[in-house]
Fold these 4 entries.
Entry 1:
Amino acid sequence: MAAKATALAPTITVSEAVVEDWTRVLRRLRDELGETAFRSWFQEIHVERVENAEGVISLPTRFLRNWVATHYADKLLAAWRAENPAVRRLTIVVEPHPTAPPRPAPSSAAAADAQLATPTPVSEIGDDRAQLSAPLDPRFTFANFVVGKPNELANAAARRVAEAFSAPAHSVPFNPLFLYGGVGLGKTHLMHAIAWHVRTHAPRRKVIYLSAEKFMYQFIRALRFRSTMDFKEQFRSVDLLMIDDVQFISGKDSTQEEFFHTFNALVDQNRQIVISADKSPSDLEGLEERMRSRLGWGLVADLHPTTYELRLGILHAKAEASGAKVPDKVLEFLAHKITSNVRELEGALNRITAHTQLVGRDITLESAHELLHDLLRANERHVTIDEIQKKVAEHFNIKMAEMTSARRARIVARPRQVAMYLAKQLTPRSLPEIGRKFGGRDHTTVMHAVKKIEELTAADRALGEDVELLRRMLLS
Ligand code: ADP
Ligand code: MG
């Protein structure tokens, strides 16, 4: 049943039975995965042969091969075995198949998009880079960014990059600028602000801003239509490249590879790069080591969770900009209660100003309460000591039982101290109460743990980041 392939005939001939089985396998997959996924990944798949219980199929690129192997190998094999139980293993090879559909002409870009079933990114920046850059939000400028302790470093760094880059003798102060922080703390805002600044002060400079997801999309698309040269060309001719939310690139091998090369090429030519992510380079999972260290080369600036003062400042600024009259008491109430992120804070304020305009009456504390009860409830999330112990144990890969055990080996004692510290920070429990929850320890032990972790996080960056990460996970 094996296919015949000779050195003289690179076009492998597959036996009819194999092809018939394969057609049915594909039909099964299409039913199981749905049309969109099927077309995205299996359009160019070919059966090569079945030999010694091994089914061999091919895809035209390494990227597609890896993707299908990671995401669909099990399903493929199961479907194949359902048609032909003799197939017990699956191998996917890279083979640009002679019968693969040719690359569509450039004019059929629309059709190409339909094929990928992903919306085309629209552009505003740059002419010939039209399809690459994402639109900028007109509200996201430096002038509209309220600066406070938690974001002052990130803001200063972003400004510095924007100004240095727009100056006539342009320079690249730190490359890359890596901004990171939790959801809704202003990463995208700062990146757009850089783009706006450059656009106003140095309109001839080529700027590309896009999300890591779009970057991947563009890359996959280039692979599918074998236009990777154009892709490289487009990215490598920009002056300032900004990629938002790179955590989405991690784990996707060949996109990472391409990103790495683009990155290096740009840095070598002294072009500016700005990156954002939800974690620091050292905490990004699924990232290759060389990529991780490259990303940390320039300036890494953290956006910390907001403080009450910053939230109030933002609310004042936004209320003023909207022109609606919102009493200070209500703003203070919001700043106090809605602590998750700035996006929610804005949402709350918008609801209030809309209400004010609709009913034509100033909002009171009572009506604010009523209007926002769902948001307020969500922000009233209380963390329990159990949750803290569980998350910390998971994070440091120790047993939950070690949280209450008497073992004093550092490998378990340190995580236990971190958990005590977080319990003190995140719950209203007293030191004796916390001590009891950790296997009946004395309150002085808890106090010692809190002090110890405070000292350690100040001195040891890795531990500091661990604790910060845990804090964020617990509060989100
Ligand atoms: P991220 O990209 O970090 O998830 P965004 O940049 O999208 O967050 O910010 C979420 C929203 O909060 C945006 O509307 C943004 O304008 C606003 N925002 C965040 N931080 C500030 C700030 N310091 N001053 C003014 N607006 C802010
Ligand atoms: Mg963002």
Entry 2:
Amino acid sequence: MKTQQEWQELKQTLEIQTQAFINGEYCSAMEKQQFEVVNPATGEVLGCVARCLQEDVDSAVSHARRVFDDGSWSDASPTQRKSVLLRFADLIDSHRDELALLETLDTGKPISHSYSTDIPGSANAIRWYAEAIDKTYGEVAPTEKEVHAFISHQPIGVVAAIVPWNFPLWLACWKLGPALAAGCSVVLKPSEKSSLTAIFLGKLANEAGIPKGVFQVVTGFGHEAGEALARHQDVNCITFTGSTKVAGQLMVSSGESNLKRVWAEAGGKNANIIFDDYEDLDKAANEAAAGCFYNQGEVCVAATRLLIHNSIKDEFVDKLLSATERFQPKDPLDPQSAMGALIDVEHKRKVLNYIRLGIKEGASLIGGEEPIKTGAFLSPAILDNVTNSMCVAQEEIFGPVLSVITFETEEEAIQIANDSKYGLGAAIWTDNINRAHRVAKKLAAGTVWVNNYNEGDMSVPFGGFKMSGNGRDKSLHALEKFTETKTTWIRLNP
Ligand code: NAD
């Protein structure tokens, strides 16, 4: 990977494309409106991005529909789509430096993370579904012998992918991979806070040979471009990652328009449970810190609620404090940085308010210093003596704030973990295999980790119970979200 100096040099020559990408071409919004994008680490304006409105969305959706209906992608053989998408993935890999730099400049996340996780993860997501699509079969039903019934999956049509700012390209590719592989046309709406890598994908899509209109990017705000997609009569499916609040709004928009499918991956308030029978507390403390503070804590599955057995609490908290030291914020372009800037100053204010609220509710801020307050940087905060009914334990803060909660018994740990409107992820640390299975089964969470936090692979589904969403991203399970299931009955002549 490049040095800090080399990243700075690349920044000087980096071309930043800021237009929407509609029907294979970069274009301004029809009303010519724009909005500024700012590097949260420096406050520098990176560019002015097209502010798409209803008419831009209408145009993108009509191109998406036209190309879907003409079949040039939707009816292409799976092997054809596979070879184009493999090229697309290779192009993401070959532009890894520019994409990683754009992601870091746009979001404030450490360059080492963009470079080693976000960008290769994005290419991998596209590649995984490209590889899967010509190995996916339909079914034949076990009916009476006079009939033949088969079940096939057809691409659902026009898909709107609406994504957040914390892993802008990576989460977009979790959606693009299966939707494009299935044969859909996709209109991607990145967050207004992080549009740059999505825009960059446009030229790669052209180079890869994705037909015009099959992949498009409408940039802009949620209440404008986002809502126009959500209420559009000709969009068949929304695949969304973002807040629980907006997930609910999308369901209303769908219900009030055309009942488009809404697949939502939403918020989390995840419990990381450390039992007193687990021996390697150093390992658990390191992963507890990384699980909460990775990506500045701006992670839906962040380990924000540490549930720790009373008898090991003091020892564990000391280890946690040491493990947290490496997450002091630094220049995101420094390859040694493990924590960069939050997405913007406004979000930092919100996170700081939660820390103050926690203290007001009776928690104590440990770790010595008051969190630093320059620009959008914020050092990690650990709140001790939290009870699960406090706002800081119930609400998603989406920043580097960890709440320490104690328990006495296994039942109590399960009860506290499940006492949340969310159900995205949870972890258990135990050396007792019976306990591991017993507790994993009872936790209301889409993913349960045992003796690790945050293992992941494209081959496993990801998503939540309760208000953390519906449907699943990743794995073969995600493909079905982008298809309609069709049953065909054939009566056989005697
Ligand atoms: P957000 O819900 O504010 O915005 C997400 C996207 O929705 C953005 O593109 C936004 O412009 C758009 N949007 C906003 N209002 C809209 C509307 N009325 N109609 C249509 N689109 C609209 O979320 P955010 O602040 O960008 O991201 C943080 C949230 O994302 C957190 O809650 C986090 O937990 C969640 N998240 C979940 C997962 C997961 O897989 N479950 C992963 C990452 C982030």
Entry 3:
Amino acid sequence: MEINREGYILGIESTAHTFSIGLADSNGYPLDSVSVAVRPLKGGIHPREAADHHAEKAADVLQKLLKSNKLESKNFAGVAFSQGPGLGPCLRIGASVARTISQKWDVPLIGVNHCVAHIEVGRKTCGCDDPVLLYVSGGNTQIIAKMDGRYRVLGETLDIGIGNMLDKFAREQGIPFPGGPKIESLAKEWIENNPESKLADYSLPYAVQGMDLAFSGVLNAACNLIKRGAPLGAVCWSIQEHTFAACVEVAERALAHTSKNELLLGGGVACNSRLRNMSEVMALERNAKSFVPERKFCVDNGSMIAVLGKLHLKHDDITDISNSSVLQYLRTDQTPILWT
Ligand code: AMP
Ligand code: MG
């Protein structure tokens, strides 16, 4: 296939609850995505049900995106999709949609690493160069930095993702998915109304384990605080203070270890103002700079997939259909980084 490096890239994201199609322009800059997400009324995300939802919505999402941007197939140079990591049934819908578009439009197919996409959309939109990424999302919590041509995971959660912990705690309290934003507002309200509060009164386990993190103990302990009569707002506040401090502590150690001086936030939990604020303070204290993408580029979105697709395409790194199976357990450091 003749590779055309000019034109838009279509990016398809379907690793978990969100199905999103977005765009990168011919300079590799992300534009707005069209996204839909499953919101289970009860319990967590069921991978098969989420996949059915994505399959049902895919055609509408694509039509809406093309129409609102006045684009058609001839404007595109490639179609990128999240090849992994993620929930198998959900990933397979995105991959199938991408293969179909690639064949029909006769454009290259580009399978990309979802975690790397969070980094590259941050670098592109925030203008940072060589950051330590604090990637905090529903399913993932990782501290990542580039070394020897790969993004290396310097620390990560040993059990559940921080967003998953927030969502599970919220669900136990009858707060619907996603719980993170509501926990943020309850925490803010609590500390504004109770400025004398002490964390020691709502103590939770220390989530740092060497360079790694662990959140399921925090989740249990927080639920127990509620059972013992602690106010919901106070526990939300304590969860945020304890777990965000843990993430920021590991990120700080990663900055020290790598001698880098840029911190980048990514993932849905990076929408949280308290986490943004803690990261900024830590960076300032060590003469580093903290960067946070716009919220629409923090949450899972198709445009970040397109941004990474563009980088692969620039290096003729396209995916043959025979290698386009989804990679549920793809690791951040399995993807060679060909660009600077
Ligand atoms: P992602 O997996 O990257 O799409 O992000 C989804 C996760 O981000 C969910 O676990 C949400 O609860 C969490 N989230 C979204 N907004 C916030 C917020 N303002 N504070 C904390 N967590 C949030
Ligand atoms: Mg994500």
Entry 4:
Amino acid sequence: MLNKSIIILAAGAGTRMKSTTPKVLHKISGKPMLYFSIKESLKLSDDITVVLYHQAQKVKEEIEKLFKEIKINFVIQDHEKYPGTGGAVMGITPKYDKTLVLNADMPLIQSSELEKFDLDATIVMSVLELKSADGYGRVVIENGNVKRIVEQKDATEEELKINTANAGIYQFETKYLLENLPKLSNNNAQKEYYITDLIEMAIEQGKVLKPIVVNEENFKGVNSKIELADAEVIHQKRIKQQFLKEGVIMRMPETIYIEEGVSIKGESIIENGVSLLDNAVIINSHIKTNSIVENSTLEDSDIGPMARVRPGSRLKNTHLGNFVETKKAILTGVKAGHLSYLGDCEIDEGTNVGAGCITCNYDGINKHKTIIGKNVFIGSDCQLVAPITIEDDVMLAAGTCATKNISKGSLAINRVPIKLIKNFYYKFFGKR
Ligand code: UD1
Ligand code: MG
């Protein structure tokens, strides 16, 4: 922990996202952008303030769900009076002598990068050397020294050609910040109070300014859906490289999507096109092509290709083949090779679920459970109308619609006997 306060600016409308969702709630690898700045900040500081305004309540609720029982201060920017990144910082009293200010639209930021700002200076600012600084504030340098930051909308033709950009993270001496925020003006193209004007003011006051050159990938700002998609690609690569390092096998990793929060342990194989979502846990398991696992645990199991394990499922020593869907299914030592829906159920060891078997769990109002014991043989195309219990060692004949509990060792069959009508085909269609 460093003795410094962190302010995260998340009050902007994010108009360039062209969306009714607040910018900082747009997701990267399944979590809102703001989640990542907070997560990294928590590694460094116990005084974190998040500034909100647009849809503040919604943003606060989403974030509190993700950081339960962790203390984060939320403040509302006086946006009507003081719009802009400078306005966002006004009215906050940081606890420590140094304050790090982060834009919340930088989901790739890492705490190790933030540690680099821990220098002795009135302001430490981050600079990007880019091929094109389009979209960023430009850093005006004269005689090798930073002079000021000019926003794209305020820049002259000449200034627009500058490829040195303001990355959008600053460390201030808190005293300097509090003394100079009231001096900001909104005399610019956007009629906003810019935090970036504090740089020029510090230079004019003869204060020490230390620019640090940072890496574009970690400091990437997200203002549009294109940048959101680009940032997610980078983030995905990071997640997958970590798992590869830990010994997971991935086939064509660039086609695999793994959300923040997923864990993969032991000798697991993830094939191409797989999506692992939310808090999925994969232990010693093989996930075949184009399968999806969401918020479920798989241990010593194999699924797919094209299986879908929906939230609340727990599979152990289980095989699911193609087009098998589960939801809240507790499967232990089960085989379901083809085309089944197994929802709200518990199925025990040695049970075989035939092709096309469906748990009818929903009566239109409520969901009901199906309990299936050990070593049950379920023939193809059975419907199990829940609530229902099928005890151990039961056989269900193919095509059975089971509507009541079936006791241990029984055969259940409710087929209509087949009737043969000789030469019906020819009577119906005539000779062809
Ligand atoms: C800002 C910088 C720019 C820098 C870029 C880096 C300013 C004036 N410009 O531009 O120099 O190159 O970041 O990514 O600071 N916010 C508020 N309240 C507001 C306005 C914005 O909290 O009134 C928040 C936003 O939610 C966002 C962050 O501040 O998280 C930055 O705002 P944004 O509009 O994205 O600024 P940029 O145009 O990207
Ligand atoms: Mg931005």
